[in-house]
Amino acid sequence: MKVKLARTAGFCMGVRRAMNIVLDAANAKQGKLYTYGPLVHNPQAIDMLKQKGVEVLADSTVSNATVIIRAHGVPPEERKRLKEAGNVICDATCPHVARAQAIIKKETREGYMTIIVGDRGHAEVNGLLGHADGNGFIVEKADEVDQLPEMEKACMIAQTTQDRKVFLETVEKAKRKIPDIMVFDTICDSTSMRQREVVELAKETDAMVIVGGKNSANTRRLYEISCGTGVPSFHIEDEDELDHLGLEQYENIGVMAGASTPNWVIIKVIDRIKYLLKKRQSRAYRLLERIGEFFVESSLYLGIGAVSMCYTSLVFQGVEPVFTILSIAFLYVFAVHVFNRFNEKLKDDFFDPARTRFFKDYGNMLNISAIMASCAALYLSYMLGITDLILLLFSYLMGIIYSIRIVPERFRTFTKYKRFKDIPGSKDIFVSLAWAWVIVLIPMLNKQIYFSYISIAIMVFVPVMVFIRSVIFDIICIEGDRIVGRETIPILIGPRRTQTVLLVFSAIIAAFMVSSAFFGLVPSLGYYLVLPLIFMLACLYFFQKTRVQSGVLFEAIIDSNFILAGVITYLWQ
Q1: Which of 282, 336, 345, 423 has the fewest CB atoms within 10 Å of its CB?
Q2: What is the side-by-side order of every strand in the sheet holding 113-117?
C-alpha cells in the first residue's frame, strides 16, 4: 500500500512567487492590502490570506491601498485605473504570462491580429486580450477556428495552462485558414511537465487523486487527462472529500495537484489517504506504528539523540561518561523541544496535520512531562554542584529572553525586530548553542576540563550538527513559516542558497575535524564523526530529489544522525 506524490504537484513558479509577494506584504502590515481578484483558484489559500488581512478586490473602486496584481495578470486599462485612484501597485504577474502579454503588444503594433487559445472568461485570458487593443479573439478548441473572421495575418498564443494537444490541433487548423500566421508556444513548461507526469503516474498506480480548486483550469485539465488514461480518478479540493471515495480498495494511489494548490493542502490530503489505508493494516502493525510515532513526535527520540551526542562529547575529551550528566542532557533537550513544538502549533496547523492531531491528543500530558523533566534536570545539576545549576538555569533563562520583547516601543520605527525571536535564523542559532551549552560546556566544566583544542573542536562540532538539523527542517517548513510570518534563513536567502550554505559549512567543519585528527590534535574519532554530517545532508538531498513527504519517518531518520554519532563513538572506544 503506497501513496505516490507527483514531483510536479503543487504551486508552479509563478503562483509560488505571487504567494510569497502577498505573504511578505501581509507580514509587513503596512496598510490595507488587496489582491486584484482571487490570488489563486483555491478556496483554502484564499481563506488563509483573508485571515492575514488580505482582501479580494472584486472591482477597481478602492483607493489609497496596496493592490497586488495576481499571477494571471490584468488588462492594461485596469492597471491604469487602479494607479490613477492613488493605489500602490505591486505586480505579481507570472513571468510566463508577462512574456505572452509582451508578445501580443509587439505583434499588435505591427498590425497582427491576436488569437488566444484558452478558456473564455479566465482571468489570464482576459488580461491577455486587453493587450490586443480590441483586435483579439479567443478560441477554446480547434473547431472554433472556422468561426473566426477573415484575416490576412495573425499571431497565435496559448493560455499558459492550456493543454498542449488542444493547442497544436488548433494551430494546425488556423494555419490552413490564415495566410500569414505567427505561432508562439506560450504554454508554461511546468504545465507540460505536470500533464506528462499525470499520465506516467497513472500507469504506476491503481487510482489517481487530483487536488485543486474546482474552478482551477489547469487542475481540471489534469483531472481530464487522468480520466483519459482509464485509471479511476477523483478531483477533490480538500481532504474531507476523501472519506467517501472508497480509496481503501486500491493498493497504490497517485496524487497530483494543480499549479494553484498549496503544499499544506497536499500534505493534508496525503495524511488523510494514509490514515484511510491504515484500516487495511493489522492491529499489531498499527500499534507498533503508533508507538513509533509517539516516540518521535514527543521528542523522546530526540532526547536519546542528545544523550548520544553528550556521550560522544565526553569520550572525545577523554572523560568517562557519567549517568547524571547524560540524564541532564536527555531531560533538558526533551523539555525544551516539547515547549518549542507546542509554541509552533499554529504553523503545524498548515504544515503538519499529524503533529496537530498528536498535540491535540497528548499536548497537556507532554507539557506537564516537560515541566517535570526541567525540574529533574535542575535537581540533578544541583547534585553535581552549584556551578552546574547556575549554568543550566542560565540556559533556561536564555530561552525565556529569546521570546520576550527587548526593543522598547519608542524605537519601533528604527527596527522591525522586537525580540531575538524575530531575527532571521535566530532559532537555529539559539537551539544549537543551547545543545552545546548543556552537552559540552556543563560537562566540561564539571569535569574541570578547560578550553583545550579538543574541547573547542567538539564544542564546534556539536552545535554545527544541531544547526544543520534545525535549518533542514526550516527548508522543509518554509511554506508554513512564511504563512505565520516567521523569517528563517531559507525565507531570507532562498532554499537553494540555504542548501549551498549548509554544504559549504559542512565541508569546512568536516575538513577541520579530519585535518585535526590527521595532525593528532584530536583523537582519531574525529575522522569518523564526519559520517553523521555527510549522512544528514544526503537525507536532505534525497528528500528534495524524490519529493518524499516530510513526516515522522523523515524526522526520525534525520535525528538518527545524533544516535549514529554515539554508535560510532562506542565502536571506536
Answers
A1: 282
A2: 136-139, 113-117, 153-158, 180-183
Give one word for 232, left, alpha or beta, with left for phi > 0 and alpha for psi -120 to 50: beta
Helix (H/G/I), strand (E/B), else coil: 496: helix
CATH 3.40.50.11270 maps onto the chain at 2-94
Q: What is the pTM of this model?
A: 0.79
**CA 160, CA 258: separation in Å to the nearest integer?**
13
**DSSP assignment string, 414-442:** T-S--SGGGSTTHHHHHHHHHHHIIIIIH
Closest CA to 439 of 425, 460, 470: 460
Contact 33, 54 (CB under 8 A): yes
Please tell me the class of the 196-281 domain.
alpha beta
* Three-class secondary structure of residue 501 per DSSP: helix
Collect the ranges in the chain with pLDDT lower than 70.
1, 58-60, 345-351, 406-417, 544-550
Grid coordinates standing for 210?
A: 487530483
Instruction: Return the CATH number of the domain spanning residue range 290-572.
Output: 1.10.600
Q: Quick: pLDDT tens for 105-128.
A: 999 999 999 999 999 988 899 999
* Residue-level pLDDT at 103: 95
Q: Are strands 153-158 and 136-139 parallel, antiparallel or unpaired?
A: unpaired
**In the 8-state DSSP scheme, what is residue 149?**
P
Q: How far is Cα 25 from Cα 471, in angstroms, rounded to an integer?
A: 24
- Evaluate whether 437 touches 388 at the Cβ level (below 8 Å): no
Q: Can you say how many angstroms the Cα of residue 407 is from the centroid of all Cα atoms in its chain?
A: 30
Is 407 buried (19+), middle (13-18) or exposed (0-12) by CB count in 10 A? middle
Helix (H) or strand (E) holding 234: strand 233-236
- Residue with C-alpha cell 509563478? 14
Which residues form the catalytic set? 124
Q: Which CATH architecture has domain 96-187?
A: 3-Layer(aba) Sandwich (3.40)
Residue 337 has which C-alpha cell? 523541544
Distances (CA, A) of 501 to 119, 478, 495: 44, 16, 10
Instruction: Report d(CA 255, CA 269) in Å as an integer.
Output: 9
Ranges for all domains in the chain classified under CATH 3.40.1010.20: 96-187, 196-281
- Grid cell of 500 as nine digits: 549551498
